[in-house]
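Researcher: Here's a chain I'd like modeled. Treat it as a single chain, no partners, no ligands.
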Amino acid sequence: MNVHARLAAASLMLMTLAAACSPQTEKTAETAPAAPAAAPISDTHAFRIGQVEAVALRDGTIVLTNAEEQSPWSAVSDVATVLTANGVTDNRIHLSVQPLLVKDGERVVLIDTGAGGQMGTENKLPASLAAAGVQPAQVTDILISHAHGDHVGGLVANGALVYPNATVRMTAAEWAAMQGENELQPIVRLIRPKVETFEPGASISPAITALPLPGHTAGHTGYEIANGGARLIYVGDALHSSLISVQRPELVNRWDLDSATAIATRQALLERGASQNLLFYGVHFPFPGLGRIQRRDDGFVWAPQP
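Model: Modeled as a single isolated chain. Structure tokens:
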């Protein structure tokens, strides 16, 4: 079973588990006082990279049980140690999903498109984008880090393009691999006229450069956004978990196509981040995914940006 098929199977399993584990609604006594309304949680987070405007857009959360065949990390005991040491008590791995909106001059750029409601996610991206003041037709460019369902699933909906005026950009290697995946053919057919490919390291827009981060898929790429001396690294799936991937980068992740290369990429990215004090954007890190890598003892930790 290839990595995309495993992800599709994982999506079905997650949705089944979510339905089975949903709490039952209990009848409340008529005399019970009404609970205070919870404060709304913002699904957007605006910030700047130099003078470039950016917005983190919440799409949802993937929740995985730390168990064989349910988590991509097969080293269950090692993962449990990391989770417990960081105060996680439910033995579950929480992976947020938040595409990034970047306004680069006349370009309105969306980096990745979320899961489109698959893999147990909530499909919050359309509402998050609207809350950021952008309509789908205004998006001029979509940059794809790689063609897994939680990054390309939001490209289409109801048999149509969600972003009809956007050019869809990805590495040539990733586009070639995507066209060979049977489960992605409904997406491939619709986006084909819109796709433009590039080579690793290419300049995509005035502020955005593709950053080669090999190993996860055939043409996986991150993106470096630089303006006025400020820099941000969109890490894609070179780093999945702010805990496991950062503190134990050597652990094998079965979602990686080339494990040895992916591990080397993770370690090099963490080293660079810590040495240069770079601002990272973790698409699967706790929302809004902004922070830095810090050295701790003989390893690294994630330091969210306040």
